[in-house]
Design brief:
Elements (H helix, E strand, L loop, with lengths): L21 H12 L6 E2 H8 L3 H14 L2 E3 L4 E4 L1 H12 L2 H17 L2 E8 L2 E8 L14 E3 L4 H9 L2 H8 L15 H14 L2 E4 L6 E9 L5 E10 L5 H26 L10
Antiparallel strand pairs: 1-3, 2-3, 4-5, 4-9, 5-6, 7-8, 8-9
Length: 277
């Protein structure tokens, strides 16, 4: 499989060089530190953030002293207990995730596929929680992993629920990077596909983000029809085949509808969603 679903390359709409202030630089290093491919080498963190190695090293030393980073063998670093504790506290405090998790468990049991809940951060989808079946084939998707909106089922689902001008702004006008041979690279083509997604209530990623991987997702809406995220399932193409999409798609749509109804019943809008709507 050529490219992992979990990538931070396109997470930010701005370039790493935008991290010019001290707080920006610290946040950029923390953001790189929590990416899934830990432990991270100093050179990799510097390359990912666009910051000089001495700057990254100084920040890592400060983080390590405060418990936000842990140095490892060979000059590597990974997230420390203080940082992990903050993440756990934030997740535990989210009523939205608490509402989504039992729905994901039910969806996973009924479909046999990994079920997940994702939110939008600018032009990417961030996977925040999932329910994973015990299967021989493990999917390359983890909580905290990211995938661009334009080439993912959760991305298309959320784009379909946004006003058309907002979706167009997120997609831009330039040719989009190819993740696989099947990636839809023309922003106009993605926009043209969204009405059909909106009509049937779910989107299908047919190997757009990763070869041999298919996904189905439906948008989750909060009060005032605000896009709160998306519920999806993902599987290898030989287990999640084209024939099963017609059966499983409505199940994903119903699961997203359950989370939507719960959010509108008093949980509130998902506070961790960022970006223009």
């Amino acid at each position: 499989m050529p490219k992992p679903v979990n990538t931070s390359a396109s997470r930010r709409e701005e370039s790493p060089a935008a991290a010019t202030g001290p707080v920006d630089k610290a946040l950029a290093v923390l953001d790189a530190l929590v990416q899934p491919d830990a432990p991270h080498r100093l050179a990799d963190l510097a390359a990912r953030t666009g910051l000089p190695k001495p700057t990254v090293h100084r920040l890592l030393h400060t983080f390590a002293e405060a418990g936000y980073a842990v140095p490892g063998p060979g000059g590597t670093y990974q997230a420390g207990p203080r940082l992990l504790g903050l993440a756990a506290t934030a997740l535990a405090a989210s009523s939205e995730l608490r509402l989504a998790r039992p729905v994901l468990d039910d969806l996973r049991l009924r479909t046999g596929h990994l079920a997940h809940f994702s939110v939008r951060d600018g032009a990417v989808a961030v996977h925040v929680t999932q329910s994973e079946p015990s299967a021989t084939y493990r999917m390359p998707l983890t909580a905290g992993g990211e995938v661009p909106l334009y080439c993912s089922a959760v991305g298309w689902a959320m784009l379909s629920a946004l006003p058309s001008p907002a979706a167009a702004e997120l997609l831009g006008t330039e040719q989009l990077p190819a993740r696989t041979a099947r990636t839809v690279r023309d922003p106009e083509a993605v926009l043209a596909a969204l009405p059909a997604v909106r009509e049937r209530g779910y989107a299908v990623d047919d190997e757009y983000a990763e070869q041999d991987v298919r996904a189905i997702a439906a948008p989750v809406l909060g009060p005032g029809n605000r896009v709160a995220g998306a519920v999806g399932i993902v599987g290898l193409t030989f287990t999640l085949d084209e024939e099963s999409v017609a059966v499983l798609g409505p199940m994903v749509r119903a699961a997203a509808g359950t989370v939507t109804a719960a959010l509108r019943g008093g949980a509130g809008a998902l506070g961790i969603v960022r970006g223009q709507e």
